[in-house]
Write a structure and sequence with these properties.
This protein has about 140 residues and is mostly helical. The chain has 6 helices and no strands. The chain is globular and about 50 Å long.
Length: about 140
């Protein structure tokens, strides 16, 4: 791990939690990114509350871009192939549909509401992530 940033991580987690609480207080809605995005992309039904959903997703995109303008973009390297990353993105999207939610909806909001279903889903997310990293780094990489 090249750089451990506990204070920045704590601040980021607090902001995510604050955003989830504010959305619940103001709109009575769960801050589940997959559900918010899926309803925006739905062509089969009208979405009456499209405005706040668009603002939420725009904030997810524009906030890091704005921060990069202020502080400069961090140096990043992506070692994966574009095809593998596209497949991984598809599988994550499929998993959120299959699990009726994503890490934000289940892991942040669901656990905060003491939802047994969300606790179970988050456990499965974590176990699958740990297993995937183990397989990719230790079994497929040859060592």
């Amino acid at each position: 791990m090249p750089e451990f940033t506990p204070l920045a991580s704590l601040a980021g987690g607090m902001l995510i939690g604050l955003a989830a609480v504010v959305l619940m207080l103001l709109n009575g809605r769960i801050a589940g990114i997959s559900g918010i995005t899926a309803s925006l992309l739905s062509v089969s039904r009208a979405v009456p509350d499209r405005g706040w959903r668009l603002a939420f997703v725009a904030g997810l995109i524009l906030a890091p871009l704005g921060l990069a303008q202020v502080e400069g973009a961090p140096a990043m390297t992506v070692a994966g192939s574009p095809a593998i990353m596209a497949l991984a993105g598809f599988l994550v999207g499929f998993g959120t549909v299959l699990g009726n939610g994503c890490t934000s909806g289940h892991g942040i909001c669901g656990i905060a509401r003491l939802s047994p279903r969300s606790v179970a889903a988050t456990g499965v997310f974590m176990a699958a992530g740990i297993a995937t990293v183990f397989v990719v780094r230790h079994l497929l990489a040859g060592g």
